[in-house]
Specification:
Layout (H helix, E strand, L loop, with lengths): L9 H14 L5 H12 L5 H17 L18 H8 L4 H4 L2 H38 L14 E4 L6 E6 L5 E6 L2 E6 L7 E3 L15 E3 L5 E5 L3 E6 L5 E6 L15 H10 L11 E5 L5 E6 L8 E6 L5 E5 L7 E6 L5 E6 L4 E5 L5 E5 L2 E6 L5 E7 L6 E8 L5 E5 L5 E6 L5 E6 L14 E6 L5 E6 L1 E3 L2 E3 L1 E6 L5 E6 L4 E5 L5
Antiparallel strand pairs: 1-30, 2-3, 3-4, 4-5, 6-7, 7-8, 8-9, 10-11, 11-12, 12-13, 14-15, 15-16, 16-17, 18-19, 19-20, 20-21, 22-23, 23-24, 24-25, 26-27, 28-29, 29-30
Helix pairs in contact: 1-2, 3-4
Length: 500
């Protein structure tokens, strides 16, 4: 603030302005005010001029008579125009006067209060973030930290559970349970849906056979003896039914895959007591276009892999040329370009799904699983005992080159590659049955799919102080959980990968 001459101080100026405002005549208000302000004030700084202009602006706003304030420049010589600008930008205390100190205090108080609120809000955000991280690292109970191998869901004991399968979206599980096909919310037993096959014309019950989720998780295809039924997954309403073909008098033998060959095959296949066929290993192609199912009859030459158009129900291909054993497992490659079929003779065949020709064949295989990118296979090399492997390896799916060998410890009976491609799960079993017919495993190991290092071992879990083995192990689509069936027929879901 500029210094003032004689006895005038900023406070004196404020008091004088108040006095003049109270005593002025209305008719000469603007002229008197301008003259008096000019008389009281010596323009000697740019800051004072700015403050004076603010005072004039406020006074104009308070004017109730609509009179025009005469510019100060009218009372000043032209050579003082520059000094006028300085006057208009100064004297911050003319308007506020004695209130400046209290205003500053109020502003300081507001600033302090704002800082306090900011600190409190920041502290709350830190606490909230910590709580959220703690919640993300737990599941089921907020008081128990999630860890590898933790069982997050365990059903009651059933009489028989098999074909346990995740929906592709990971929200539900489905399985044959005690003679019925059911699905439910994946980590708790709520919202159970049961899918019933229509009875025969004579009222005989037909059991649901093999099934497959549609890629979008909205439907279930189910083998039902005389037909393949497609159910709405949520409501269990039957959307379509495709009768299994009957022999055609005009069907002529042809190449493998001809519909005529397919119809002849159906006429020769062994029928169920309720009619139709017992189909196994049903799968839906990743693009949703095809349904696959296997048929294993006697003799071995009667076995086949059957492919239908999923929308029209037309039989597309019948793959049975050169089969010399039951088909144990069939998997589409994730990109849908190939189909892998594993036989009881330890043979693995890779089919091109456009030409339906065999493009690669492996011998001595006791289990397999596709990599998520469809480029590789995890293979179990058959050991001396039927269906038990001596080691595991990763190979190029089409040229057979071995890229990694791991788990050289034997006794493996199943392999599953995680959907995210980072881990490979191997099921192990103590060989107590020389024929290797026992299906259960007593522990599972998770291996790094890149370097083949052991990451974690999941042992059979204790139930009533008894170690219970398991089977039917499969990854959830997000690769976080593995579902399996215990030897006492409980459904188990456990943590196989922690959140990152």
């Amino acid at each position: 603030m500029a210094e003032y001459e004689n006895f005038y101080t900023p406070d004196d100026v404020d008091e004088q302005i108040e006095a003049f405002l109270q005593a002025r005549e209305t008719s000469t208000r603007d002229q008197k005010l301008t003259h008096d302000l000019h008389a009281f004030y010596k323009p000697d700084s740019e800051a004072d001029a700015h403050s004076l202009q603010r005072v004039l602006t406020q006074l104009l706003a308070d004017d109730q008579h609509g009179q025009k304030i005469v510019p100060i420049s009218d009372f000043m010589p032209k050579q003082q125009k520059y000094e006028e600008t300085s006057i208009m930008r100064g004297t911050l205390s003319i308007k506020a006067g004695a209130k400046t100190s209290s205003t500053l205090v109020r502003r300081l108080n507001i600033l302090v209060a704002t800082l306090i609120v900011a600190v409190l809000v920041g502290s709350m955000l830190v606490v909230f973030n910590a709580a959220r991280q703690s919640h993300n690292s737990t599941i089921g109970s907020p008081d128990t930290a999630e860890k590898l191998g933790k069982i997050i869901y365990q059903s009651s004991t059933h009489q028989l559970v098999f074909n346990l399968s995740w929906s592709p979206d990971g929200t539900r599980l489905a399985a044959h349970i005690d003679g019925t096909l059911q699905s439910w919310d994946a980590t708790n037993p709520s919202n159970v849906v049961t899918y019933n096959i229509p009875a025969t014309a004579s009222g005989k019950k037909v059991f649901a056979g093999s099934f497959a989720w549609s890629p979008d998780s909205t439907r279930l295809a189910v083998a039902g003896g005389t037909a393949i039924y497609v159910f709405d997954a949520k409501t269990a309403a039957i959307q379509t039914s495709t009768p299994l073909q009957t022999p055609s008098p005009t069907a002529q033998p042809g190449s493998v895959g001809d519909r005529g060959i397919g119809k002849i095959f159906f006429s020769q296949a062994q029928k169920l007591s309720t009619g139709g066929l017992s189909l196994g290993n049903m799968t839906w192609s990743p693009d949703g276009r095809f349904l696959e199912a296997t048929y294993n009859g006697l003799p071995d030459s009667a076995c086949a892999i059957l492919i239908w158009n999923a929308e029209t129900g037309d039989l597309v291909e019948t793959l049975n040329k050169g089969f010399n054993g039951n088909v144990l497992n069939v998997q589409w490659s994730p990109d849908g370009r190939h189909l892998a079929s594993w036989f009881a003779t330890s043979v693995l065949k890779i089919w091109d799904t456009i030409t339906w020709s065999v493009v690669k064949q492996y011998q001595g295989v006791s289990g397999f699983s596709w990599s998520p990118d469809s480029k590789h296979l995890a293979l179990l090399d058959a050991g001396k005992v039927f269906m038990f492997a001596k080691d595991a390896r990763i190979v190029d799916a089409l040229n057979g080159q071995t890229l990694l060998t791991f788990a050289k410890e034997g006794s493996m009976r199943a392999v599953q590659w995680s959907p995210d491609g980072t881990r490979i799960a191997l099921e192990y079993q103590k060989i107590s049955n020389p024929l290797g017919l026992q299906r259960t495993a007593d522990h599972m190991k998770l291996w790094d799919a890149i370097n083949g290092k052991l990451l974690y071992t999941f042992t059979a879990f204790p139930v009533s102080d008894v170690m219970i083995p398991f089977s039917e192990a499969s990854w959830s689509p997000d690769s976080r959980y593995i579902a399996c069936v215990s030897d006492d027929q409980r459904i188990i879901v456990w943590v196989a990968k922690l959140r990152t």
